[in-house]
Design brief:
The chain is mainly α and about 270 residues long. The chain has eleven helices and no strands. The protein has one domain. Helix 1 packs parallel to helix 10, helix 3 runs antiparallel to helix 9 and helix 7 packs antiparallel against helix 8.
Amino acid sequence: MLDLLRAAVLGVLQGLTEFLPVSSTGHLLIFGRVIGYDDPGGAFTVMIQLGSILAVMWLYRQRIWDVVTGLPTKPEARRFAIMLFLAFLPAVAIGLLSAQFVKDELYHRLDIIAWALILGGIAMLAIEKWLPSVRVKDAAETPIGRAVGVGFFQTLALIPGVSRSGATIFGGLLLGLDRRAAAEFSFFLAMPTMVAAFAYDFMQVKDHLTPDRAAEIGVGFVFAFLSAALVVKPFLNFVTRVGFGPFAWYRIVGGALLLGLLSMGWM
C-alpha cells in the first residue's frame, strides 16, 4: 500500500512539473530519493512519462486531428508538420549521441541538478527583464528557422535540472515568440520529442517491467495523466498574465535549498 501511495505522489509530481519550466526529471530524482522509492532501471519513471505525453495530446487532440487529416490537402497543415519535424531533429541527433552518458554520469548528481535549477532560474529572470521584441504571436505560425532554433535550445534539457519545457519556452522567447506562443510551441514540440524519448527508454527498461510492479506503474500513470491535463491550460493563462518570474524564483530557491542539504550531508 505504501508503494502505491508513493507511486501516486510521484505521478502527480510528474504531471504537474512536466510542462512547467521547473524540470520534472529533477523533481522525480530528488523526491524519489526523499520518499525512498526504488525504481530499478527507471521503468516507473519511463512509463508515467507516457501519461503526461498522452494528457497534452488529449488536450490538443483537435489540432492534431486537423493537421493529420489536412496533410494531403492543406499547405498550412504540411507546414506545421514540417516545422515540428525539423525542430525535433536536434534532440534526436544529440540525444542519441549523449543519452547513455547523461544517464550514467549526470542523473545521479544532485549537485548538477541544483546548479541547473539555479542557473536556469537566473536566466529566466534575465530574459523576463530584457525580453526581445515579439515577432510571433501564434505558435503554429513560427518561422521554420526560429522553430529549428527552439529545437536546439531543447537539447539543453538533456542535463537533468534544466527542464525541457523551460529550455524550449525561453528559447522561443529569445527568438521572438510571445509568452503564450512560446509555451504552446513547447507543448507541440513535446509531443514528438517525448514519444521518441519514451520509445527509446522503453526499449532500455522493458526487462524491468515485471507483473508485480504493474499496480505501481498503473497508479503513477493515471495520476501523471490527470495532473498534467489539469495544469496545462491554467499554466498558459498564468504566464500570459503574470510571466515566468515566479517559476524562476522557485528554481533558484529550490536549487539553493538542495545545495544546502547536500553540503550538510542530509541528502
